[in-house]
Amino acid sequence: MRQGTPKPVLQLVSIPVLAGVSLALWAAWLGWDQQRDVHPDGSTTGPYEAWQVIGLVLTLLAPVCWAAFRRYTAGAVLGTTVGLTVAAYVDWSDDSSGLFMVGVGMVMLGSFVVTAVLSAVIASATQDGRQAAVH
């Protein structure tokens, strides 16, 4: 059995697949909640609750880990980053203050860094495990 990097076509196909999964998960967890909560003192929060964001992150772990384990690193990192960035842009672009681009940039940078680190850790762990099994 040949070990190594996956075929380039599968590597490229994983990018739009992971982007689509990320968009769908954003819509499922965050897309339906668009109302800010107004508290008795007049302050507002939201529109998302912490459990929604945590749910999004936890459900994104499965496809990102799967892609990284299969060495579809481009899909895990770029696909997830593109999907979340596009979803944030579409969801927040109606903000009249213009500050939504700061949030979109933070989503882009944060998702890129986290998926890159997670993919590197998984690739390193699986590579070490495969080498240990061979020797």
Summarize model confidence as the mean pLDDT: 87
How much of the sequence lies in strands comes to: under 5%
Radius of gyration: 18 Å
- Number of extended strands: 2
Order of the strands making up the biggest sheet:
1-2
Transmembrane segments: 12-30, 50-69, 76-92, 98-123
Keywords: Membrane, Transmembrane, Transmembrane helix
Index terms:
3% strand; mainly alpha; 135 residues; single chain
SSE layout:
Layout lengths: L7 H24 L5 E2 L5 E2 L4 H20 L3 H20 L7 H35 L1
Helix pairs in contact: 1-2, 1-3, 2-3, 2-4, 3-4
Account of the protein in words:
Helices cover 73% and strands 3% of the residues. The chain has 135 residues and is mainly α. The protein has one domain. The chain has a two-stranded antiparallel ribbon. The C terminus is likely disordered. Keywords: Membrane, Transmembrane, Transmembrane helix.
